[in-house]
Design a protein that fits this description.
The protein has helices spanning about 30-45, 80-90, 90-100, 115-130, 135-145; strands spanning about 5, 20. The protein is mainly alpha-helical. The chain has one domain (about 5-145): Orthogonal Bundle (Cytochrome Bc1 Complex, Chain D, domain 2). A two-stranded antiparallel ribbon has the order 1-2. Helix 1 (about 30-45) crosses helix 4, helix 2 crosses helix 3 (about 90-100) and helix 2 packs across helix 4. The longest helix has 16 residues, at about 30-45. Its cofactor is heme c.
């Protein structure tokens, strides 16, 4: 566990990704499935190219933030894998509440009724595969520090 394993992406997205897995939860993930689900379930808010919504750091009138980018310019990679999984599965409000965070309004819905755990990990693997190797390593280190 924790060894860096290069995985060769196959299929339609092989040319656009250069995954470096440093987390056993991402080993052997289906990047094509992750890309498809991302396109169907995530891109409408987070952008087709993972670019997020404009002014994503500025709260709206209701206190929620616009959807952040999932590319290297955003903050997704600053979070450990468990948080990203829980945020996706259970939604932002429930996940933050479980971690003792109060006073933060999250607009992230829960996908536990729509996606399987494997689907969620495939989406996270797809997102992670879009990041430069250096950022993949930093996110993996954050995840391993909590194991």
């Amino acid at each position: 566990m924790g060894a860096l394993l290069p995985i060769i992406a196959t299929g339609l997205f092989a040319a656009s990704v250069s995954p470096l897995w440093a987390d056993h939860l991402f080993e052997g993930r289906d990047l094509d499935n992750g890309a498809q689900i991302y396109g169907e379930s995530c891109a409408s808010c987070h952008g087709a190219k993972l670019e997020g919504q404009p002014d994503w750091r500025t709260p709206r009138d209701d206190g929620t933030l616009p959807a952040p980018p999932h590319d290297a310019s955003g903050h997704t990679w600053h979070h450990d894998t468990a948080l990203l999984f829980n945020y996706t599965k259970f939604g932002g409000a429930k996940t933050l509440e479980a971690r003792g965070v109060t006073g933060f309004q999250s607009g992230m819905p829960a996908f536990d009724d729509a996606l399987t755990d494997d689907d969620i990990y495939d989406v996270l693997a797809y997102i992670r595969a879009q990041w430069p190797t250096r950022i993949q390593r930093m996110q993996a280190e954050r995840s391993h520090a909590l194991e």
